[in-house]
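#struct-help
A.M.: can someone run this one for me? Single chain, 344 residues.
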Amino acid sequence: MREKITKLITEVEAFAAETKDEVESFRIKYLGKKGVLADLFAEMKNIAPEMRKDFGQMVNELKVKAEDKLNGLQEVLQAAHDNAKQADLDLTLPGDPIALGSRHPISLVRAEILRIFGRIGFTVADGPEIEDDWHNFTALNFPENHPARDMQDTFFISQEGGKDSIALRTHTSSIQVRVMEKSKPPIRILAPGRVYRNEAISARAHCFFHQVEGLYIDENVSFADLKQTLLYFAQEMFGSDAKIRLRPSYFPFTEPSAEMDVSCQICKGKGCNVCKYTGWLEIMGCGMVDPNVLTNCNIDPEKYSGYAFGMGIERIAMLKYDVKDLRLYSENDVRFLRQFSSSN
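D.P.: on it. C-alpha cells below:
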C-alpha cells in the first residue's frame, strides 16, 4: 500500500494539463467522491491499527499534493484565458460615451430671470429659509392676529406665540426686509429662493416652490416705473409681442397692489384652454412698497418710495415650456428633465 501511494504522489506531481477538460478529469480522478482519495480513506478500516497512523499521513500528503496541483493548474488556465481576452481588446477604440446631464428647468428659468433684471441694474440678495416672525410677517405689515396672516399656510418650527415664532419662510420678501435693515437707498435687488407653504400637493400647487422677488427703493419712484419694468421683463422673457395688464389686488406689504397678467403666448391672446379663453395668464403680484414697511426697516417714507414684485419660478417655467403639472419639477424623472438638455 505504501508503494501504491508513493506512486500516486509521483503521478500527481508529474501531471500536466492544457485544457479545462483535462483539469476536470484530474479533479474527478483524485478528489472526486468516487476518486482515488475516497477509496484510500475507505481502506483505512482494513489497515492494521499499528499501521494506520503512517497510512493516514501518506494519504493526507497525497491529498495536499492533489489539491495544490489542481489549484495551480486552474490558476495557469485562468491567466492564459485573461491574456487571450486582453489581446482581443483594441485599445485604440474610443471609450463608451458618458451621457451628459441637463440643467433643471427651474434653474434655467431662474438664471434667465436674473439675467433679464441684471441688465437693468438689479443685484442678487440671499437670506435664510428658516425665518423669525419679524422678518417673515411683522416687518412686512402683518400685525399679530391680522387676518392677512391667514393668506399663507405656514410650516411653523416653533410657535411660541407672536414675535417668538420660527417658521419656514413663506415668501422671499423676508430677504427684502433684511436688505432694507442693513442698507441705505438706493436699493435695487432680486431675492430668489425656495419657499414653503402648507398646501395640498396637486398639479397646480406644492408644499414648496421657488420665487424671485424684486425690490427697488429710491427717491421719486412711481407706479409708472414699476409698470415699465414689468413690461420690459415680459417682453424679454416671452417675446417682443408680449403685452401686460395690471389688475387691482391686495397685499399687506404694498399699497397700491396689483396682479400682473401677460398675454397668452400659446394662443396669442385669442383664447385657449390654458388661459381659460381669456387671452391672459397671471404671472406675478406687485405694488408700491407700503410706507409702514419702510418705517419698520428704518427708511424714511417721506423721502423714499419704492416698488416690489414677486413671481413663482415654476409658474414662469410652466408658461415658457408648456408644462401642465407642477409635480414634474420635483419628481426627478430623467425622461422629463432630458427634454431641457438643448437649453443649456
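A.M.: thanks! The chain has eleven helices and ten strands.
D.P.: also worth noting: The radius of gyration is 39 Å.
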